[in-house]
Amino acid sequence: MKRRLQTFAIVLITAVVTYVLTTYVYFGSPIYTNKLATNPKVSKVIWLLKKYYYEPKDINDQKIVDGAIDGIAASVGDPYTEYFTKKEFDEFMIQSKGTYFGIGVTIEPGENYIEVVTPFEGSPAYKAGIKPGDKIIRVNGINLTAKDIDKAVSLMRGPKGTSVTVTILREGSSKPIDFKIVRDEIKIKTVSSSILENNLGYIKITNFDENTPQDFYNSYDKLKSSGCRGLIIDLRFNPGGLLESVVDVASNFLKKGQLIVYLKDRYNHKEYFKSYKNGDTVTPLVVLTNKYSASASEILAGCLKDQKRAKIVGEKTFGKGVVQQVFDLGDGSAIKITVSQYLLPSGAYIHKKGIEPDVKIAQPKEYQDKMNVPINKDLQLQKAIEILKSEISKSKF
C-alpha cells in the first residue's frame, strides 16, 4: 500500500512538473501570466479611464480589451505580430482566400476622391460600365472622399444578390452618374498574363492567395500552348501571401525534391519545403523585382535564383524573411504571431537585407513608384525581354 502511494505521488508530481514546464515553454510562466492579468497598475488605469475620461460613450469593456491585446501584441516590437478584431480578421481572411461578395473593383485614394484602378473582367462593376479612372463620390447616397477607402469597401461589399448604388464622376461627363449594381461572388485576380514580342510570355502575380497556384498554372499552360519560348514573372509590388501558394508556384519550374525554402523556429526546429513535382526546367526565366517585392515573392525570386533557374532583374527586394501563424481567439478575433524565420536554399537569411538582383536597373524617375508603366517606358521589363532574347538565341546553337 505504501509503495502504491509512493508510485502515485511520483506520477502526480511528474504530471504537475510536466504541466508547469509545458505551460512555461508554450505559453510563458503561468505565475508571470497570472501577475500580468491581475496587475494592479493595469486595473487602476482601467478604473481611472472609466471614472474620469470626459467622453463616457467612448469607454466600453470590449474596446478596452481590444486595446489591451493590441498593445500586448505591439510590445514585442515586431510589425508583423498583430491583433485582429473580428472585422479586421474577416478582411484578412478575404485577402487570404481570394474571394468575397461585392462589385469587383480595385480602388485607390486619388487627389480628392477614391479612384477606380480597374474593374475585374466579368465582374458586376465591369458589366455595369464602371471604368478605370472613374471617381467614386458616393455609395448608397453616403458622401466619400479620398480618405474613406475602408468605408467605401465596406459599403460596396454585401450579400450576394443585393444591390448597391455607386455614384461616380467621369472625365468628360458634366454631372455625376449613378450605377445600380447587383453584388456577386468576386474572385480576386492575382494572376494576369500576356504574350509579348518574339513569343515571350509574361505573367504578373500581385499576391499569393489560395487561388494563385491554379490561376498561375492555367495561365502558364495557355502561354506554352501559344508557343511561349521564354517567360517573365513580374513580382514587382507583390507584398507576399501564403507560403503554401508560393511553394506550389515554384514547383512549376524545379525538379522534384529541389529545395524551395526552409523554416527555423525559436527551438531551432527546421521544416523543409521542396518541389513536389518535376516542373519545367528548360524554358528561360526572368523574374522582375523591386523594393516592394516582399515575403512570399522573395521566396519565389530567391529560390529560383539560388537554384540557378532564373535571372532576377530590377531592384533589391524589401527584405521580409519571417513567417507568421494566425491563432483564432475563439470570438471571431485572432492574433498573428511571427513564429519562425525562413532561409533560402543557399542558407541566406534575407530579413531586413533583401535579395540583390542579377541585373540592377531602375525605372525612369517619373515611374519609380507606379504600378502601371507603358511597356515602352518600362526599363526593367525591356531589360528582361533583352535577356530572354539573348538566351533563346544562344540555345539555338
UniProtKB/TrEMBL annotation:
Statement: the UniProt record of this protein carries the keyword Membrane:
yes
Q: Which domain of life is it from?
A: Bacteria
Q: Which PROSITE patterns is this protein grouped with? A: PDZ
Report domain PDZ positions. Answer: 96-157
**What Gene3D superfamilies does the entry give?**
2-enoyl-CoA Hydratase, Chain A, domain 1, 2.30.42.10, 3.30.750.44
* Annotated transmembrane regions: 7-27
Question: What keywords are annotated for this sequence in UniProt?
Answer: Hydrolase, Membrane, Protease, Serine protease, Transmembrane, Transmembrane helix
Can the keyword Protease be found in this entry's annotation? yes
Family classification: Belongs to the peptidase S41A family.
**This chain belongs to which protein, by name?**
S41 family peptidase
